[in-house]
Design brief:
The chain is mainly alpha-helical. Helices cover 66% and strands 7% of the residues. Helix 1 runs antiparallel to helix 4, helix 4 runs antiparallel to helix 5 and helix 6 packs antiparallel against helix 7. The protein is globular.
Length: 269
């Protein structure tokens, strides 16, 4: 028979001491945790691109006005497009790249947390659509990184494709996630989740309407080269981006009771 190892006086230690001074001196593993409420983390994550966005627009207007509002039509404009503001001049280009890169890992973490969240709150027969929704969010994040690091000034074809992909996937993600959380829930939403859903619907509505209006002014600008059309396009483009950021910040309501434990292993004697 195999002897009972639990009877050994050293079974909890795991090694035989060389002398009496070694008994009980084994270092036991421990982990020091830093607890971060997810609600706060979500707000900081959205704040990074929002700060970068505001900085790039304001700096472009104050210090690079002529170059950032100029278009092929050579007509009067008062606002730069987002692409011109974030990618054509320095220091806007560097600030945008830095803050977008800093916020990206948390954005992917949020996708993973939403997979778990959808699994808990949605009906089982619709989880395949929830998977597609999360995939759209991943592609949206990758497209944002692409249009950030491939600027319109240096890599216009790539930037254009990334921008179109970003817009398409962000619109589809907002539409599908709002549909799932309003029509395909397996359990009734609590007060915080209901507040989140109402805010989602409002932001999605403003976003979609602004997107259509921005497209209208963009077409008019390209076809007729009318003064101020590109300014109006830029203004509604700003609204599209800001409402998109606001939509993603509603994760702080959906996942309000989650906390993130950040820790590193250490040893105590």
């Amino acid at each position: 028979m195999i002897p009972n190892r639990g009877s050994s006086p050293f079974s909890k230690i795991g090694y035989l001491p060389l002398n009496e001074k070694d008994v009980g001196r084994e270092k036991s593993p421990s982990i020091i945790f830093c607890t971060v409420p997810f609600e706060r983390l979500a707000k900081v994550t959205v704040a990074l691109p929002l700060v970068a966005f505001i900085f790039c627009i304001v700096w472009s207007i104050l210090f690079n006005f002529d170059t950032t509002v100029s278009t092929h039509c050579k007509v009067t404009n008062w606002l730069p497009s987002i692409s011109a503001a974030i990618g054509n001049e320095s220091p806007q280009r560097e600030v945008w790249k830095l803050l977008i890169a800093l916020h990206a890992p948390t954005r992917f973490l949020v996708v993973w947390m939403y997979i778990e969240y959808f699994w808990k709150v949605l009906r089982s027969e619709i989880l395949w659509l929830a998977g597609i929704t999360c995939l759209l969010n991943v592609i949206e994040n990758l497209a944002l990184l692409g249009l950030t690091f491939f600027t319109s000034a240096d890599h216009y074809p790539i930037h254009e494709k990334c921008f179109i992909t970003f817009i398409a996937t962000s619109e589809l993600y907002m539409l599908l996630s709002s549909f799932l959380l309003s029509r395909r829930r397996a359990r009734i939403a609590n007060n915080v989740e209901s507040r989140s859903l109402r805010l989602k619907v409002k932001l999605l509505t403003v976003n979609a309407v602004s997107f259509i209006i921005a497209g209208y002014f963009f077409v008019r600008h390209n076809n007729y080269c009318e003064p101020y059309m590109y300014t109006l396009f830029s203004f509604f483009e700003y609204i599209v981006v800001i409402t998109n950021m606001g939509y993603h910040m509603t994760a702080s309501y959906d996942l309000f009771d989650r906390v993130l434990h950040v820790g590193c292993p250490t040893h105590v004697t």
